Amino acid sequence: MSQQRALRVDVVRRGGPEVLQVVEDSVPVPEPGEVRLRMLAAGISAYDRMERSHWLPGSPRPPYTPGLDVVGVVDALGAGVTEPVVGSVVAGGPYDRGGCYASHQCRAADTLVPVPEGVDPVEAVCLVTDYVTARHVMHDTAHVRPGERVLVHGAVSVRHCSSWVPWPGWSCTARPPRTTTISSQHWGRPRSTTAPSTLRPGSTS
Description:
By secondary structure, the chain is α+β, with helices and mostly antiparallel strands. It is built from four helices and nine strands; from the N terminus they run βββαββββαααββ.
């Protein structure tokens, strides 16, 4: 029986889409504390394009595998990992090491969150960075407090986000047509922007 192989897409030099190249490699083996994902969807963002086309501070040198956000199926566990279990669908990101343009990827188990059954992986992967960004803006930049109102423009669906909120204690309440309030039970100094290990639904009214 032939050994299973993995595929990834590398940026081989700076430039447009023509610099993307499919590479075949061995399937990665998860290290202690990691799980291996079989990719279902990878996020593709303007940041990926900017990093690929132009040098940005801190950007990797080609060749490298781009992609920050992922939804995948856990298919192997590293030593010491009990959750998430093999076969579960999880999401992760943003990931400073990139590597999501691939058929398989290894990530730290405690940075992944379960994707609820019935959520399309392509839709789920679009939400991860949106929520991390929103939390960073509200907690680290604006220091929003309970009772304050927030103008949200260019946002994802409030009804969608309330059905899958990857930060415990968060909820989205829509009062159409003009007011959207985003609230949290976790005010004060924010925790790490690494996603927690559980998802808790919010509420919509």
